Amino acid sequence: GAWAKPSARTVDSVCPYCGVGCALTYHIQPDAQGREHIARVDGRDGVANHERLCVKGRFGFDYVANPARLTVPLIRREGVAKDPEQVKLADWRAVFREATWDEALERAAGGLRNIREQHGGRALAGFGSAKGSNEEAYLFQKLVRAGLRTHNVDHCTRLCHASSVAALLEGIGSGAVSNPVMDVLQADVVLLIGANPTVNHPVAASWMKNAMARGTRFILADPRRTELARKAWMTLQFRADTDLALLNAMLHVVFDEDLLDAESVRDRCHPDEVEAVRKHVAGLSPEAMEPVCGVPAADIRAAARAFATSKGSMILWGMGISQHVHGTDNVRALIALCLLTGQIGRPGTGLHPLRGQNNVQGASDAGLIPMMFPDYVRTQADGAMDKAEHYWKLPPGQLSREPGLTVVEIIHAALEGKIRGMYIEGENPAMSDPDVHHARQALAGLEHLVVQDIFLTETAALADVVLPATAWPEKTGTVTNTDRLVQLGRQALKPPGQARADLWIIQEMGRRLGVAPVAEVDMHGGEAGVGAVFEDMRGMMPSIAGISWDRLQREGAVTYPCAEEDQPGQRVVFIDRFPTADGRAKLLPAPLSFADERPDNAYPHVLITGRELEHWHTGAMTRHASVLDALEPQATVSAHPSLLAKLGVAPGEVLRVESRRGAIQLATRADPGMPEDAVFIPFAYAEAAANLLTNAALDPWGKIAEVKYCAVRLSKAEAE
Ligand code: SF4
Q1: Among 76, 394, 584, 655, which residue carries the largest CB count within 10 Å?
Q2: Which residue out of 14, 22, 206 has the highest number of ligand 1 atoms within 8 Å of its CB and is therefore the one to mutate?
């Protein structure tokens, strides 16, 4: 078959799915009609993967050639209303008509321009994408700030690690990881909490398994007993939402058993803050917390002892930690644990929030967040606006002085009619936002919505103008992985039909909104202009000062921070000081607090949402990838066999899951690793959208929604 044929051509790139950032090579072949396609993908010897790939990186690419791709600009037909209940369009031609690029761009930008002129920039917002390149993220936030005249610009980082970043910036002055994933091979102890890497970061999980085989002691802490538990040294299966009970109890042991690292406490912390944490955890002993979190006190003590006393301990965490109303406090507790025990600043130690999307790190670095310009310069800091205006050659005062809103705040503001127009590039809030029914109503209620994407997503179904964009293999650009590794991906295929490179579309929108283009960029995704945009971005980002476009062309991948072109980039950071005013960390007590919506008599069970191996986020790519969709074709809900027995539902039978916000029905899957009071649903399936049920309550610091936990009731579905 095609697999065995010699390839006509190879192109080097990076996997477009998760934050591990596996380097790969596409093998491109012409089909019988001479159209080129990706015949197969091989892992390349990249820094993060050493030739390894998971099922998504190896088999997840034919979404690019799916006939459902958008290939022509679309404009909503006159008089066709937006229906928030109908986001899967049976016949898109009844809703949209085809248009030329000129007409579509003029309509798209014109609608935003009108709102800007009548109501000001505060009535507008933009969502960019963590799946786009750094150059796209940079240019998009520039367009929103300078062209739409608002800082209402954000992306899905708000829904994954915003609380981690808030706590890390506050605590140690930087939101990025201290050490790369691969350091698990040098660690003696690894605390892996609220993460399921075999599913979400599979190649990273393979390094973790290698580390376990070499003797690294893994402490796996999660409400679900996931696959890595089979090899873990210790499993702490705590009750969902009791992270703070577990972590405060571990901190209690550090003080109680005098496991503090004197040097770290003396040189890297403030004595009054250490004292405040000590006082706070004094009453939160493992024995007192055992009834709360369900983990035997002796296990909590053993875990804390191992972590504190090993020669190198590392913490890796995922969204089980961050997607809570107490997500920022969860991470504050992790930072305190690391600092008080001196487990940072060396290989095999440190703090690593496992980044979800392929470019969630890079998009945040590039300023695709409301409160920061590129390189985390606070928009409200003294002189920051003036500097940005000067660099972008804008007239003084052009940038709004009002702070911007975040993802969920923008949706709330749209529901209230305060946001009237939006430009959404490559994101799907009609699937990904919490309490998505509200998000769909908000999007449908906008006066003007422009969506730029590769498929007619649930969000695009509510648009006024749809702009057909490029898939990752169709363009050149850089992405930054969870380890701070900036990597170059090269164009392998031409975009289909009239689809155009995202960078070109953003620039064309910018032209029409009064933002001068950075360079003449290639409309078909080629290299022309991408380097100039990268260099423009680099000029605002000291962290990548030593990573020039030329260097990326030669080396393909360079880690930041990297100050000079002849430096390799720093794999391990915070060796002797943090990027804070005095070089020390700031420790804060993390009060014991719980979910916004706890189970009660009416809704007695817990819903946990997340991802599964084969499907990525809202499924826009993977559900159009034939191998992946064949492996997992159907939405399922996982539950403990004893819970299913209590409900009288056999595995495979249909369960109704209902929260205060909605109800869905899905086939059940028995999973003995689940807690007995909770169910797990992946959020990739539009036909049973988990986010119809989730709670939009926000963490006050990170403004992240509590999509990991809400109350539901369960019943056997009535036969139809
Ligand atoms: Fe792609 Fe992540 Fe799988 Fe690597 S581990 S192949 S980056 S999805």
Answers
A1: 655
A2: 22
- Give the β-pairing of 710-716 and 654-659: antiparallel
Cβ–Cβ under 8 Å, residues 445 and 429 = no
Bridge partners (DSSP) of residue 680 are 608, 638
Cβ atoms of residues 415 and 444 within 8 Å = no
Per-residue model confidence as pLDDT tens digits over 161-205: 889 999 999 999 998 899 999 999 999 999 999 999 999 999 999
Cβ–Cβ under 8 Å, residues 204 and 376: no
Integer Cα distance of 589 and 566 in angstroms: 42
Ligand 1 pocket at CB < 6 A: 15, 17-18, 20-22, 49, 53-54, 56-57, 201-203
Task: Report the C-alpha gap between 51 and 53 in whole angstroms.
Answer: 7
Q: What domains sit in the chain, N to C, each tagged with a CATH number?
A: 2-65 (2.20.25.90), 74-155+358-559 (3.40.50.740), 162-353 (3.40.228.10), 605-716 (2.40.40.20)
Q: pLDDT digits over 691-715, tens only? A: 999 999 999 998 888 999 999 999 9
Element (H, E) at 678: strand 678-682
Model ipTM? 1.00
